[in-house]
Amino acid sequence: MNWTKPSPPTKEIPYDHVLCETPLGTISIEWKGWKEMDTYGVIIGNEYIGDGWDLEDAKKLAKEWLVKKHNELSAFLTPKLTNVFNEGKEHEQSRNQ
C-alpha cells in the first residue's frame, strides 16, 4: 500500500494524517499530533473503521479491513461469475451443434 508522508492538518482534514488511495476509496489515518498520546483513527471513504495505537497499527487495521472486504466481495461474486461462465459455455456448445 502506498501511503503519503504524514501531513499536518488541512482545511479538508483537521488532524495530522496520512492517505492511501484504494479501489474502494481513500483511506485516511488521522491523529491529533499536538497530544502526547492519541489513537490513530482509520477512515475509509466516509466510514469509520476503528483506531490503532500507533501509525503502524492503524495501517495494519486498514489492510485487514481491505482483505476482509476482498474476501466478502469474492465470496459474493464467485457463484455469480461461475454461473455466467457456465451459461456462456452452454450457449457456445448449443451454437456448435
Describe the model.
The protein is an alpha+beta fold. It has one domain (about 15-95). Helix content is about 45%, strand content about 25%. The protein has 1 helix and 4 strands, in the order E-E-E-E-H. It has one helix spanning about 55-95; strands at about 15-20, 25-30, 40-45, 45-50. The chain has a 4-stranded antiparallel sheet with strand order 1-2-3-4, covered by helices on one side. Strand 2 (about 25-30) and strand 3 (about 40-45) form a beta hairpin. It is elongated, with a radius of gyration of 20 Å. The model has no long low-confidence stretch (mean pLDDT about 85).
Write the layout of secondary structure elements.
Blueprint: E1 16-22, E2 25-31, E3 40-44, E4 47-52, H1 55-96
Antiparallel strand pairs: 1-2, 2-3, 3-4
The dominant shape is elongated
User: Kindly state the mean pLDDT as a whole number?
Assistant: 86
Order of neighbouring strands in the sheet with most strands: 1-2-3-4
End-to-end Cα distance: 50 Å
The amount of helix comes to 40-55%
Please indicate the percent range of residues in DSSP E strands (runs of 2 or more).
25-35%
According to DSSP, the number of beta strands is 4
Order of helices and strands: EEEEH
Give the structural class.
Answer: alpha+beta
Low-confidence stretches: none
User: What gyration radius follows from the Cα positions, in whole Å?
Assistant: 20 Å
What is the helix tally?
1
Main sheet specs: 4 strands, antiparallel
Into how many domains do the coordinates divide? 1
